[in-house]
Amino acid sequence: MNVARAVRLTGRIVAATHNKGKLAELKDLLAPRGLEVVGAGALGLAEPAETGDSFAANAALKARAAAEAARLPALADDSGLCVAALDDAPGIYSARWAGEGKDFAGAMARIERELKARGAEPPWRAHFVSVLALAWPDGRLESFEGRVDGRLVFPPRGTRGFGYDPIFAPDGHARSFGEMSAEEKHGLPADDSLALSHRARAFQKLARALID
Question: How many other β-carbons are positioned within 10 Å of the β-carbon of residue 186?
């Protein structure tokens, strides 16, 4: 990760995502800091191909593309679920496992099938990773990584959150992310030191360096 510079982030920022669930989470995290958040879709920005070989590389290319096109600071997230018994798959391909139709129910079912095909016994260890990349139109870039460890639960539980949230229970908790409120996952609004989610933990680092 890049070493953060002393550049305070204020005003308007582009959330460089076309994923509605991810956009909602970024707005939850950014809005309390007095930042005006606009999604890439609302600005008509193209969605770049994720050709990087890591979460950091994909987050950087999305942030830089949005910052250059919008001429505004842009924040991009690249994140995914890494399952230990599947050699950390789906990892950076987490969204692709859901296909063009974003069928995460199918992607979660695939994970369960592959675990059983390998004869992996529960508890199935996994972790979520999020890298937030913040780019400015002048080419500057800062990156921040968050991680949360836990286990997989089947069948999926809960309808909150998005993506793989219904099959992931963080360490120390019986409920899945799909059963938790945004406030529980993000530690909002009173105490973000209680953040559970990988995205919120990455955001904590960003906020300490560039906002708070």
Answer: 23
77 contacts 17 by C-beta, under 8 angstroms: yes
Exposure string for 56-88, b = 16+ CB within 10 A, e = fewer: bbbbbbbbbbbbbbbebbbbbbbbbbbbbbbee
| Domain range annotation of the chain | 12-210
Of the candidate ranges 44-58, 80-94, 182-196, the one whose mean pLDDT is the lowest: 182-196
Q: Which CATH architecture has domain 12-210?
A: Alpha-Beta Complex (3.90)
| 3-class secondary-structure state, position 118 | coil
Which one is catalytic: 78, 88, 138, 165? 78
For 64-97, write each residue's pLDDT tens digit: 999 999 999 999 999 999 999 999 999 999 999 9
User: Which residue matches tokens 């600005």?
Assistant: 43
Query: Alpha-carbon torsion 8, 10, 12, 14, what sign?
Result: positive
Residue 138, both tokens: 């002048």
Q: What was the pLDDT predicted at 170? A: 96
Dist. CA 99–CA 196, nearest whole Å = 27
pLDDT tens, position by position, 118-173 = 999 999 999 999 999 999 999 999 999 999 999 999 999 999 989 999 999 999 99
Any catalytic annotation for residue 88? no
Rounded Cα gap, residues 160 and 35, in angstroms = 25
Q: How far apart are the first and last CA of the chain?
A: 20
